[in-house]
Every structure is written in C-alpha cells, then in structure tokens.
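Changelog note: in this version the structure field was regenerated for every chain. One regenerated record is shown below for reference.
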Amino acid sequence: MAEGKKNNRIYIIGAGFAGTAIAQEIRKKGVLGKVVAFLDDDGEKIGRRIEEVPVLGPIREVVSLLRQTPADEALIAMPSASQEKLKELYQLLKKAEFARIRILPEISQIVEGAAHLIQTREIDPQDLLGRSPVTINLTRSLAYLRGKRVLITGAGGSIGSELSRQLLSGGASRLYLFGHGENSIYEIDRELRILQEEGVGEKATIVPIIGDLKDADYTRFILNRLKASVIFHCAAYKHVPLSESNPVEAIRNNVFGTRNLAAAAAEAGTRRLVLISTDKAVNPSSVYGASKKIAEEIVLQTQAKKSLDSIVVRFGNVLGSRGSIVPLFQKQILKGGPLTITHPEVSRFFMTIPEAASLVLQAGGVGEGGGLYVLDMGEPLLIKELAEQMIRFYGFEPEKDIPLVSVGLRPGEKLTENLWDTAEKVESTKYRKINRIIRGSSSFPDVDALLERLAPVCFYDPAQGGLYRNRRALRSVLASAIPDLEVPADESEY
C-alpha cells in the first residue's frame, strides 16, 4: 500500500500559492506520490516550471489529452474558484477518469498563503452546490480573539467544529471544545491537534471538555474556572421532527441550556457571548423554532441586564451538516434511490459550512452588544432542485435513473422559511453578507416569567409534580408566547 502511494501520479489543478505549497509538501514527504504537472489557464505560467514541475494548459485542452492515459489523482488547489469554475473542473476531471479527485477548502480557510495537504479532502457535492462564497481575511477578522480564551459550545457539531478549525488561525491562547457528546469532542480535538502538527494555524492550547449545559451548577462552576473571554454558543438540538417527538427535552436543552450559559458567562466575567440562531426562530411553527426564538430573547435580554456583550447571529441551512438533507440524499443515491423530498415546492436558504463559520466569526468581532445580525443567504433554493443537482453529481439522471418521491411535510415543517419577520427591519453593515436586524416593538413576554412557567415541566418540582414532562402543558405555555406554534390535537400528556 505504501509503495502504491509512493508511485501515485498527481496533477495539481492551479499553479498559484496554494498549488505550489501543496507540491512542496508532497515532494518533502516523499511517500505520498509524485506531482507530475500543474494544470493552469494562466498564459504567463503555462510552459514554465514551478518547483521543478511543468505547468501545462489551458486546463480544458490538457485534460482532454489525459483521457488517453488517465492519471491516479487530481488535486484542485484553487481555493478562490467560483462554484461555476469548480463545476466545470469537476466535469472535465471526471471525463478524464481520474481515480481520485481531491480539493482544497474555500479561501476562508486558507490564511495568508498557508495551504497544507492535510486540509485537502475528497470532492463532495456540497462543493458544487449553492453560490460562490464570500472571501474573508480570517487573520484580520479574528484579531479580536488574539491572546484570548475562546469557548465553543457544541464544538463537535457541524458549525462548532468548523468554527474550531478556523479559530486555529485566530491567535487565541486557548480553545475550549465543549460538548456533551464524548465521541464528537474526541474527534474534533484529535483533528485540531493533527492540523497543528501539520503546521495549520497557530499554537493555541486545545482543551476538550465534556459537560451538559442543562446542569446549571456545573455550567456556573466550569465557566468560572475557564475564564473564557468569548463564547460561541452552537450547542443545540436541531432536528425539527425529533424535537416535535421530544419537545420537553428540546426546551430543556436549547432554552434552559442557553439560560444557564448566559447567566454563568455574565457571572464569570465573559466579555462576549455569540449565539448561533436559525431562520426557524422567525414566526416559529415548530418546537425547535420556538426554542431558538426563546434562546434569542434570553441572550438579547441578558444584554440589557448585564455587562456581558451578547449578540445573536441568525442564518438558514448549511450544506452538509450532520443529519441534514445533503448527507441523506447522498446515502439514498448510493443505494440507488429513491430520493425523498417532503414537498416539490419546499425551499430553504443554504450556505456552506465554512462560509457560515467565517461570517459568524467576523460578526462576533464587529457586532455590537445587544445586536441581532442575519447573514445574507442569497435566494432560497428548491429542495427538489438540490436533489436533482446531487443526482447529476454522481453521474445519474433525475427520474430516469433515480426517482424522486414526495413524502409530505413533517410535523413542524414549513414550505418556506424567512430570515426576519414583519416587525423586524434589515439594514446593511459595512461588512459583506452581514446585516443587522432592527427590532420593532415586541409582543414577546418577559423571558424570565416564561422560563418560570416552563421550569416545572422541564425540571421536577415536588410542589408541581403533575407538570413534570407534561407535553400538553409545555405546548400550552409555548403557544401563549408564540402564536404560530403548531399544537397537535392528539398530543399525549407524556
């Protein structure tokens, strides 16, 4: 196997800083294969040699010649390429029958020309979906975190883990990876340490922490011990149907976990708390959406009472997050279909995980305490169109090779989502893709009074034992604060 890798013939697509850095690393390690050529469209580079490797081009013409003698591997090292360009490259490389196609991540993850082989991965449908991401200078955006202690809750999740990767480049003194899932925290901790070993980012001290925000005493204890300056609060149960089936636990985790964190952060002297929110918090019809709406209110009302700078960053779906539609479609395609969509007219806002994380990090630095910010998600995408694009990525034709089946909206789901409601106004900021929401007069009740009514449902109180885990009582309290919440007529008490 080692010999096979050593003889691996690699074509690097892109002879810029990223491709050059990758070629240097492959040559230095010596056992990963040999770079036989760069492919590029830049007329000034074509015909030259970089790192003793010839630059061939234009790409389309060279790749068509390679069909006669397919190489082992193509590595796309063009982190600033548009989605359209990546789609074109992928089709060309597939036709050339490369055994393997890898890609370097988006430009948001490549800091000041520091590209590393460890950052490459197999190309994925999400790389070709959606829109071209905004380019952000991470070093400049993360300057506010230099020398600071940073805590990421839900660090093993999709957004939390990507924040953690990008935070390696922020110059933080410590990165606290907090979560209640043992394996997910183990995985991101190990990944970050390997990235550091390979020269990615700076030498922050990484500290994995297993804990549960629902435990108020523990949360207060650990935050007083850690003394984090900035907290990115990503931890939440996020599945709409599961939250509908387990409404009490969703509120316990998403609402009371946020309450405990905000209170403990203020007590511990944390300077800034950034809550990751969702479009489902706008006029919520689901328990999950209701839980995030209340979490937003907790954080924003904490700002009014404490010295802690609290901000909320709201956005829609992210492509490829765990348990989301993209991984599900991948599994369904690989087993031959069918692809299940809830409704042909369902649409959602989508953004890639790296772009969302980069914008969250930037918003965390430029946002004002008490501010509610929303990321510019572009136009919503029909889920049916997303499914069709993914089928084509794998070389099949929708309906002809793999059918699509509509299964109906699930409890709590909407046809469309909004990023703000009619009482909110949106104004642009000087930062691309980050807008501020100006809140109008709110009819939302005092959050402390609402939590007091929810508490005996979520936590056992001998004086109100009949309310403990009572689903009907929970939905009744939620519906009094959130009129759009769906309340099933057949909801059982427990």
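Spot check on this record: The first helix runs from residue 2 to 6. The chain has a mean pLDDT of 91.
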